[in-house]
């Protein structure tokens, strides 16, 4: 049957923009439908505004510690409305430069604003301004993203609270901010608001922050945030939330074993407890697309239960990261349009929490490797041995690389430290392309750079291969007379 388009993409966030761009580049007549403004969660409520706020907080923190460099700044104050105005301006700048409809229309992509729903497996209806239009396509990519998940805690939905979708619209800084959730969003925003001057308490039912990251490094980061004044209530079962008569927020925490409940009070509450998919408006039943509470179900090629319909990004419930959304969108379109056997590469997905210092990892964590029973060794290199980190007074951190002992194949890595999110890229590429620690150690890295720390970590594997027994063989063979060096298992060379 003839169709209106080769590809229809539902959603104009990170996954939708990427899918539409790839489709157009492959010569497909493409339609992109977005309910609100292009850019999605990342541009308006996620990555861009949160990093802009973190940047402002870092500037305030740097000004306060400038005396360590011999620079006198005097008292540091924060104009919060001006900070928020800057966040809004940066969002608009990035939107105009990367997300505006005109950019995609110049690529030959038709862009329509409205709410899309499936009429059948080969057609959608777009509702906008009281009208409904119907379009058909050979292939579809669902990329409607997700939204903040608000847990079913008694009183929470009735009490005023913030999520990432409303936080960056606040122009009045809360004096006391309660943060529900110690994951990446909760951790980043807790540090940002603390450095901007708010009192912070973070609440989570887990026993530690960032439970998917390396346990040792997340504990180091928590200690750093506590030193800055962030308070934590972990292993906490929130029994109720209510608005106080004076307008503040009260969070009640039950202790285990039972004892007097802990009551935390604040002027505002940020709920950072995860994401849920945007599927309600799609009428997926009409398309025969399977989904559940986690999102649209897809296989490793991003295909849904219905042939010709693919899904990518947060709507699938897989890894709520912009970079993963873009990766999945490429996989979806390559399979949809080219029938290429592209698959999701979850094994080499880098994670980064942009606190200060940054916490990043790729591949298996140390605890996961121990649980699997695989043989591995961990190479460690501290930031206080990286000359660039010392000169920048950023020497709080640690690089950990887990590798196969016999050949230095990298199984996973975690980094806590300045520019950790950038450094993890080298290790992600190395893992994907089979580059061993030997190869990294043999590669020239510029001095002085933070990247040199990765090479120095790789050096530890190389050096440990020269066992005392091996060196003694060399001495007998060549007549060398030097001291045979021996290193302990945790000694840094």
List keywords for this structure.
single chain, 493 residues, alpha/beta, FAD/NAD(P)-binding domain, Enolase-like, domain 1, 3 domains, seven-stranded mixed β-sheet, five-stranded antiparallel β-sheet, 15 helices, globular
Q: Average the pLDDT over all residues and give the rounded result.
A: 95
Task: Give unreliable regions as ranges.
Answer: none
Instruction: Give the radius of gyration.
Output: 26 Å
C-alpha end-to-end distance: 68 Å
Residue share in β-strands: 15-25%
Number of domains: 3
CATH architecture assignment of the largest domain: 3-Layer(bba) Sandwich
Q: What is the count of helical runs?
A: 15
Q: Structural class given helices, strands, pairing?
A: alpha/beta
CATH topology of the largest domain: FAD/NAD(P)-binding domain
Give the CATH class of the largest domain. Alpha Beta
Count of strand segments: 23
Largest sheet: 7 strands, mixed
């Amino acid at each position: 049957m003839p169709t209106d388009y080769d590809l229809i993409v539902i959603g104009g966030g990170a996954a939708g923009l990427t899918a539409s761009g790839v489709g157009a580049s492959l010569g497909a007549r493409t339609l992109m439908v977005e309910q609100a403004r292009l850019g999605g969660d990342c541009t308006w409520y996620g990555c861009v505004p949160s990093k802009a706020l973190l940047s402002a907080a870092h500037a305030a923190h740097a000004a306060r510690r400038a005396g360590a460099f011999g620079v006198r700044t005097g008292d540091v104050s924060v104009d919060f409305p001006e900070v928020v105005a800057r966040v809004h301006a940066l969002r608009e700048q990035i939107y105009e430069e990367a997300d505006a409809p005109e950019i995609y229309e110049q690529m030959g992509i038709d862009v329509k604003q409205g709410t899309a729903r499936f009429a059948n497996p080969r057609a959608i209806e777009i509702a906008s301004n009281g009208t409904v239009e119907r379009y058909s396509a050979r292939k579809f990519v669902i990329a409607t993203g997700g939204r903040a998940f608000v847990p079913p805690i008694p009183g929470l939905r009735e009490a005023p609270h913030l999520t990432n979708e409303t936080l960056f619209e606040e122009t009045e800084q809360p004096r006391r901010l309660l943060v529900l959730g110690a994951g990446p969003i909760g951790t980043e925003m807790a540090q940002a608001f603390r450095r901007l001057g708010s009192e912070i308490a973070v609440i989570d039912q887990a026993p530690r922050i960032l439970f998917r990251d390396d346990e040792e490094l997340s504990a180091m980061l928590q200690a750093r945030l506590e030193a800055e004044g962030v308070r934590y209530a972990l292993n906490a079962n929130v029994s109720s939330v209510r608005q106080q008569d004076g307008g503040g927020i009260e969070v009640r925490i039950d202790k285990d074993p039972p004892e007097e409940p802990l009551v935390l009070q604040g002027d505002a509450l940020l709920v950072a407890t995860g994401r849920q998919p945007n599927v309600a408006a799609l009428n997926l039943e009409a398309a025969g697309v399977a989904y559940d509470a986690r999102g649209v179900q897809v296989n490793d090629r991003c295909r849904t239960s219905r042939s010709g319909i693919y899904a990518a990004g947060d709507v699938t419930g897989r890894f709520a990261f912009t970079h993963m959304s873009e990766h999945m969108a490429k996989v979806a379109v390559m399979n949809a349009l080219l029938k290429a056997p592209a698959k999701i590469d979850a094994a080499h997905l880098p994670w980064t929490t942009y606190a200060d210092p940054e916490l990043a990892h790729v591949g298996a964590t140390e605890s996961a490797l121990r649980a699997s029973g695989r043989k591995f060794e961990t190479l460690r290199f501290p930031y206080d041995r990286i000359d660039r980190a010392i000169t920048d007074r950023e020497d709080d951190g640690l690089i950990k690389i887990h590798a196969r002992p016999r050949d230095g194949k990298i199984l996973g890595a975690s980094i806590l430290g300045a520019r950790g999110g950038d450094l993890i890229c080298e290790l992600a590429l190395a893992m994907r392309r089979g580059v061993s620690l030997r190869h990294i150690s043999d590669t020239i890295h510029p001095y002085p750079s933070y990247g040199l720390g990765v090479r120095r970590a790789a050096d530890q594997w190389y050096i440990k291969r020269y066992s005392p027994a091996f060196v003694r063989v060399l001495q007998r063979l060549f007549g060398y007379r030097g001291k045979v060096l021996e290193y302990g298992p945790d000694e840094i060379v």
